[in-house]
Design goal:
Structural class: alpha/beta
Distance between the termini: 16 Å
Helix content: 25-40%
Order of helices and strands: EEEEEEHHEHEHEHEHEHEHEHHHEHEEE
Number of helices: 12
Number of strands: 17
Length: 400
């Protein structure tokens, strides 16, 4: 692959660290050096991004690629508001609409690449009706974009585990087939047996060396109780850094003292919290979580699917939604939302090297903005996107 020098960008290394004007020397897909006035070998490519903010590759931490209708004809939304109705609508219409569809998944992944996303965690439906078709479809789409984006799948029991016989066996089959993370859904509200579902998930995770990411919509004290069960099992299994709670609507709904205890326990146990900041659903207290040392990541959740018609695949735009829903106005607070779409996602995925530092993959995104907060608020066109040292977007246009 040789050498490339990305010259004159203003490097963002995370919240509160300011911007450093520097060159980035890329060698064989990896960042070799960062600093002013770097030399490169004869024949090295040179890319001028003077004055542009350079971010690390964006991370989409929670989506559902297998459900997407992106790239196809517009489908008017047909579900009611309650969660059960949206689940039923998804189940009833996916056959009619040909979901999962490899071409639509590919179209969405291409959009993500164009917006600067380097890594995706997607929750893929696994149940006796769908089998592992979603896993296979997402894998096929990801292979089409190999080298431009990395996709991690979560085997997700959308319709319950214990209440849907055969699902547990399919989750295990997905793990045997190479899926690295197990999903769960409302162990109390959906399966009516929080201990049973979580014991099953953590036992499978221990057996296959997998991570866990649980959709937790249950609110109030019930959801808080499930937080505690997940934290306890994470600590007992030594899975710190490999367990996440997605949505976690209960956290902002409980009293302040109870919330503070849970925030501290999440940080101590190494359990990440992932939010989409979607619609009017509760958003976790990002600022307090980060102050305590707990990891926060974000993602779109559904993107143009049977759950809702919204979503663009642009993680800078999603960070804007997170900042807005969190009522962040100061630059330093808005940068916390950007962190969730970058470093927070990288920690969630357990990436061994990440950021604009020597030794990390050369995943870079250059935008024309005055500050990182302005990049979130305005989410401007991506002038350069580099993934693993490969230029995939230049001057806002995809590069073949």
């Amino acid at each position: 692959m040789g050498e490339t020098v990305v010259r004159g960008g203003r490097i963002w290394r995370g919240p509160g660290q300011g911007l450093e004007t520097a060159d980035v020397l890329v060698r064989d897909g990896v960042i070799a050096e960062v600093g002013p006035g770097l030399d490169a070998a004869d024949g090295a490519a040179r890319i001028d991004v003077a004055g542009r903010i350079v971010l690390p590759g964006l991370v989409e931490s929670h989506c559902h690629l297998d459900k997407t209708l992106y790239g196809g004809p517009w489908v008017p939304h047909s579900a009611g508001e309650p969660l059960a109705e949206r689940i039923a609508n998804d189940r009833d219409r996916r056959g009619e609409l040909g979901i999962p569809d490899v071409d639509r998944i590919t179209a969405l992944l291409e959009r993500m690449v164009a917006s600067g996303t380097s890594y995706v965690r997607t929750h893929t439906d696994v149940d006796p009706e769908a089998g592992l078709r979603g896993v296979e479809a997402v894998r096929a789409a990801a292979e089409r974009l190999e080298g431009r984006i990395t996709v991690e799948q979560v085997a997700f029991p959308q319709h319950g585990v214990l209440v849907n016989p055969g699902t547990a066996e399919l989750l295990e089959e997905a793990l045997k087939g190479g899926v690295r993370t197990l999903g769960g859904i409302d162990p109390a509200g959906f399966d009516r047996d929080p201990v049973g579902q979580l014991d099953l998930l953590f036992e499978l995770a221990a057996r296959y060396g997998a991570g866990i990411d649980v959709h937790l919509h249950d609110g109030g004290t019930l959801g808080a109780f499930e937080f505690e069960l997940i934290i306890e099992r994470t600590e007992a299994a030594g899975l710190g850094g490999r367990v996440a709670i997605s949505h976690g609507y209960a956290l902002p709904q409980i009293d302040a003292a109870h919330r503070e205890r849970l925030v501290e326990r999440l940080a101590a146990a190494g359990v990440s919290l992932v939010t989409g900041a979607v619609y009017d659903f509760p958003v976790p207290p990002v600022k307090r979580l980060r102050a305590a040392g707990a990891n926060v990541a974000c993602g779109h959740d559904g993107i143009r699917d049977l759950w809702g018609p919204f979503g663009s695949g642009d993680m800078l735009e999603r960070a804007m939604h997170l900042a807005y829903r969190s009522t962040f106005r100061r630059d330093e607070d808005i940068e916390l939302a950007l962190e969730a779409a970058t470093f927070g996602g990288a920690r969630l995925l357990g990436l061994p090297a990440y950021g604009i530092v020597p030794g990390a993959p050369a995943d870079l995104v250059a935008v024309d903005a005055e500050t990182p907060a302005a990049a979130v608020v305005t989410h401007p066109p991506r002038e350069l996107v580099m993934t693993g040292g490969r230029v995939v977007v230049r001057d806002g246009e995809p590069v073949a």
